[in-house]
Amino acid sequence: SILIIDFGSQVTQLIARRVREIGVYCEIAPFQSASDAFQRLKPKGVIFSGGPASVPDGNSPRAPQEVFSAGLPLLGICYGQQTMAHQLGGTVEGGHAAEFGRADVEIVTPSALFAGVWEEGGRYPVWMSHGDRVTQLPAGFTVKATSENAPYAVASDEERRFYSTMFHPEVVHTPDGARLLRNFVVDICGCKPDWSMSAYRAEMIKKIRDQVGTGRVICGLSGGVDSAVAAVLIHEAIGDQLTCVFVDHGLMRMNEADEVVRLFRDHYNIPLVHVEAEELFLAELAKCGADPEAKRKTIGRLFIDVFDAEAAKLGGADFLAQGTLYPDVIESVSFSGGPSVTIKSHHNVGGLPERMKMKLVEPLRELFKDEVRVLGRELGLPEAFVGRHPFPGPGLAIRCPGEITKEKLDILRKADAIYLEEIRKAGLYDVIWQAFAVLLPVRTVGVMGDYRTYDHVCALRAVTSVDGMTADFYPYDMAFLGRTATRIINEVKGINRVVYDVTSKPPGTIEWE
Ligand code: XMP
Description:
Elements: E1 2-6, H1 12-22, E2 26-30, H2 34-41, E3 45-48, E4 74-77, H3 79-87, E5 91-93, E6 99-107, E7 123-130, E8 133-136, E9 142-147, E10 150-157, E11 162-165, H4 177-188, H5 197-212, E12 217-221, H6 225-238, E13 242-248, H7 256-267, E14 272-276, H8 278-286, H9 292-313, E15 319-321, H10 326-329, H11 352-356, E16 359-361, H12 369-378, H13 383-386, H14 406-425, E17 434-448, E18 451-464, E19 472-473, H15 478-491, E20 495-500
Helix pairs in contact: 5-6, 5-12, 6-12, 8-9, 14-15
The structure holds xanthosine-5'-monophosphate.
């Protein structure tokens, strides 16, 4: 495996993605705990990420010293190059002309890092982002490639197998970057590219059995991909020691609750408790009025209450299973130290572990979202389920601005189903990251046949995104929008106008509340 030491770059996760795409297992550790991770993982090589700090500042982050004396190959990227040079006795200075964005590197002499990819004398595009630079290389290092503002675009000590780049090989703007990383990981570190989902499945099944023994596990299903994949995997490991609880809050999309129940009971034959709590949720939501945060908190609180009560009815369990993913567990390296602002109280249906005091089983903790999908397919989950767009825990309640009523939710469900059907028909479902309808608490006048209508406005939303952190609205052609709007207005009683949301994130958020 490979250890990636995180110095706080925005793109550290991309290094991990690239390494895993090669078929090699890797983990990210923040620099503060890199020493522990290094001991535990016993990697075959270490990559230092970039980061926002400045070596000349004095107390900027460092790699643990033992990493340099382990005889292992190292690769330092951007800030990683600078701290590597500094820790090995070179000099780093600030304040030189910064290269941001695209630059060309020129190859001076060969290096194992770009063997078979870049040739001597050639010029190749890379992505640079930095201010400081190395001005004197440590003993044993020589320059392998330069660029206009970076005399040490690549510098290395081929004998000790220490490599460093001033550019970012992990981003797509460095077109050959993935091949350089492959050279490092496979040829230089000697990792076999054999990490695959079927190996992971087998490994996790063994781990789950070891962890759980003869204990009982309870798993909350949300209807989403992550909890479903976690549940199916755990069931494969320990069979009926697992019970799934599906708290049906009545805020799911059309037919969604039935699909979850059928999938688990009929397709997999996994014990499932279906708690029909719609009335309870709607009664409590009616008390919240229109405040988005009040809605979220109410749903989160009720979810935990209902789940807890069901667990008690089942006679308790030793373990709580969760579909936690890798991006949720990577400790983020923070330099500002200040608390970040709460835009929306997400993860509102979390909070279960604190309340229930059970040990956790989290078999997806090491996976990225798209890897979970691959694992889901490996476990035989239907494609339509595995490829689903993300769906928020509070469900349709946050797609119905204003007060929540069953009547409004039913109108929204119908419009949303037509919209998604049209998206699938047009072959756009997989191109779009997330798409949904929103029912606005605004009524407008319309005319249908000879009648005046006075009904709700429905807004359509569709975005492309990689991780939900930023997003662009999807540029449908007008014919698609026209067709969909006509169908919604004709088929859904209660809606007489449809608008399309062309806001990106930022400044908007994906959901309307
Ligand atoms: P926003 O609206 O913040 O959404 O741009 C980003 C992603 O998060 C989802 N989302 C939620 N998920 N509980 C969740 O589990 C929530 O309260 C919540 N709010 C937003 C949203 O669907 C999008 O995928």
